């Protein structure tokens, strides 16, 4: 028997365009404090969050994704028909199957692109970028659309003091495609399932249905344990991603961590010993924690504000439920 033919891609992949969609309604701390017996001052001091965007009825997971993707496609100069694969990272598409990626691929006008969702919570977008890079380099796809999208307001209990002020809504997207030079460094990723319970849906669907008064299951989080894990363990992951990309902290231009908590962002920057020249994404102040959408939203904001310039290197790192994490260095398009 002769060997099978295999696919061959391009030597390098890069992010070609970034897009975002921010829900119209901005909700300041003052609007949510009563239900959780908190204060604007406490929330800002403990998390750095001043306000967050909350999606309206028409700002669905699909609608926000399509809006962010259209911007990313336009900025990349890539037509929807050139997209071979759509990867959607989300935990808030409220239908078990089919994947929302299929509806998004169709609405965008792709030519029957492969489309599927991935569930890696807040780390999902960086998982998607790693996969897209390998698809392009391996020849499974030439252009891949990676979307991070959440409507966490649907699965957040507004009376839960540990989560109500943190979680929010939005969408971000990137187009990954071939490049003449390396644009996406090796991924450093992993999971620690022994901490499965640290952030989770409070009940599984069967438990919900079996309960006397079924209601939407919300997210629950052991905030303190998650804080310690993220602040102490993720610096090592970030450093490893820099090492594997061959980029020193002195060569790094931007740091775009998952927007979980401003204190975690500061702790990571300190323990990674990032020099003052590295620009740090702080989108959380106005966006809250948008899980899978947080890194592309923060990246989009840095580009829009002129903090991240074309050709700059940026360290992306994302972490969350699982506990799962992923990090890589990318070049700003
Ligand atoms: C949620 C978080 C801000 C809570 O801060 P914390 O310092 O751990 O707070 P604790 O739960 O230890 O509570 C400290 C005190 O604040 C009080 N408190 C808790 N939530 C409060 C709230 N929303 N408003 C006011 N007070 C609150 C507690 O009752 C406690 O009071 P006490 O000292 O009198 O007992 C913090 O744990 C955190 O940010 N964790 C990581 C969250 C995160 O990033 N998640 C996403 C990862 S993907």
UniProtKB/TrEMBL annotation:
<keyword id="KW-0275">Fatty acid biosynthesis</keyword>
<dbReference type="GO" id="GO:0005737">
    <property type="term" value="C:cytoplasm"/>
</dbReference>
<dbReference type="InterPro" id="IPR004655">
    <property type="entry name" value="FabH"/>
</dbReference>
<keyword id="KW-0012">Acyltransferase</keyword>
<protein>
    <recommendedName>
        <fullName>Beta-ketoacyl-[acyl-carrier-protein] synthase III</fullName>
        <ecNumber>2.3.1.180</ecNumber>
    </recommendedName>
</protein>
<dbReference type="InterPro" id="IPR013751">
    <property type="entry name" value="ACP_syn_III_N"/>
</dbReference>
<dbReference type="InterPro" id="IPR016039">
    <property type="entry name" value="Thiolase-like"/>
</dbReference>
<comment type="similarity">
    <text>Belongs to the thiolase-like superfamily. FabH family.</text>
</comment>
<feature type="active site">
    <location>
        <position position="289"/>
    </location>
</feature>
<feature type="domain" description="Beta-ketoacyl-[acyl-carrier-protein] synthase III C-terminal">
    <location>
        <begin position="242"/>
        <end position="330"/>
    </location>
</feature>
<dbReference type="GO" id="GO:0006633">
    <property type="term" value="P:fatty acid biosynthetic process"/>
</dbReference>
<dbReference type="InterPro" id="IPR013747">
    <property type="entry name" value="ACP_syn_III_C"/>
</dbReference>
<feature type="domain" description="Beta-ketoacyl-[acyl-carrier-protein] synthase III N-terminal">
    <location>
        <begin position="116"/>
        <end position="193"/>
    </location>
</feature>
<dbReference type="GO" id="GO:0004315">
    <property type="term" value="F:3-oxoacyl-[acyl-carrier-protein] synthase activity"/>
</dbReference>
<keyword id="KW-0444">Lipid biosynthesis</keyword>
<dbReference type="Pfam" id="PF08545">
    <property type="entry name" value="ACP_syn_III"/>
</dbReference>
<dbReference type="GO" id="GO:0044550">
    <property type="term" value="P:secondary metabolite biosynthetic process"/>
</dbReference>
<comment type="function">
    <text>Catalyzes the condensation reaction of fatty acid synthesis by the addition to an acyl acceptor of two carbons from malonyl-ACP. Catalyzes the first condensation reaction which initiates fatty acid synthesis and may therefore play a role in governing the total rate of fatty acid production. Possesses both acetoacetyl-ACP synthase and acetyl transacylase activities. Its substrate specificity determines the biosynthesis of branched-chain and/or straight-chain of fatty acids.</text>
</comment>
<comment type="subunit">
    <text>Homodimer.</text>
</comment>
<keyword id="KW-0276">Fatty acid metabolism</keyword>
<feature type="active site">
    <location>
        <position position="122"/>
    </location>
</feature>
<feature type="region of interest" description="ACP-binding">
    <location>
        <begin position="259"/>
        <end position="263"/>
    </location>
</feature>
<feature type="active site">
    <location>
        <position position="258"/>
    </location>
</feature>
<comment type="pathway">
    <text>Lipid metabolism; fatty acid biosynthesis.</text>
</comment>
<keyword id="KW-0808">Transferase</keyword>
<keyword id="KW-0511">Multifunctional enzyme</keyword>
<dbReference type="Pfam" id="PF08541">
    <property type="entry name" value="ACP_syn_III_C"/>
</dbReference>
<keyword id="KW-0963">Cytoplasm</keyword>
<keyword id="KW-0443">Lipid metabolism</keyword>
<dbReference type="GO" id="GO:0033818">
    <property type="term" value="F:beta-ketoacyl-acyl-carrier-protein synthase III activity"/>
</dbReference>
């Amino acid at each position: 028997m002769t060997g099978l033919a295999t696919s061959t891609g391009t030597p390098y992949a890069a992010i070609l365009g970034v897009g975002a969609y921010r829900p119209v309604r901005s909700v300041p701390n003052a609007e949510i404090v009563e239900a959780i017996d908190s204060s604007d001052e406490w929330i800002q001091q403990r998390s750095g969050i001043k306000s967050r965007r909350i999606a309206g009825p028409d700002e669905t997971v699909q609608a926000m994704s399509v809006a962010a993707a259209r911007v990313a496609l336009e900025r990349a100069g890539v037509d929807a028909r050139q997209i071979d694969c759509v990867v959607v990272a989300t935990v808030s598409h409220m239908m078990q199957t089919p994947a929302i990626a299929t509806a998004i691929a169709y609405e965008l006008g792709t030519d029957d692109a492969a489309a599927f969702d991935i569930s890696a919570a807040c780390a999902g977008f960086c998982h998607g970028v790693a996969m897209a890079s390998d698809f392009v380099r391996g020849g499974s796809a030439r252009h891949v659309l990676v979307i991070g999208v959440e409507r966490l307001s649907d699965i957040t209990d507004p009376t839960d003091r540990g989560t109500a002020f943190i979680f929010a809504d939005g969408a971000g997207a990137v187009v990954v495609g071939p490049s003449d030079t390396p644009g996406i460094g090796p991924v450093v990723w992993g999971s620690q399932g022994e901490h499965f319970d640290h952030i989770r849906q409070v009940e599984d669907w069967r438990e919900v249905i079996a309960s006397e008064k079924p209601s939407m299951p919300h997210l629950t989080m052991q905030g303190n344990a998650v804080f310690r894990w993220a602040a102490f363990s993720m610096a090592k992951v970030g450093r490893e991603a820099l090492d594997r990309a061959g980029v020193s902290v002195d060569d790094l231009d931007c740091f775009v961590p998952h927007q979980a908590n401003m204190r975690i962002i500061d702790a990571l920057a300190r323990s990674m010993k990032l020099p003052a020249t590295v620009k740090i994404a702080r989108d959380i102040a106005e966006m809250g924690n948008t899980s899978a959408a947080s890194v592309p939203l923060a990246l989009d904001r840095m580009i829009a504000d002129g903090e991240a310039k074309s050709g700059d290197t940026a360290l992306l790192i994302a972490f969350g439920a699982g506990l799962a994490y992923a990090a890589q260095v990318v070049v700003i398009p």
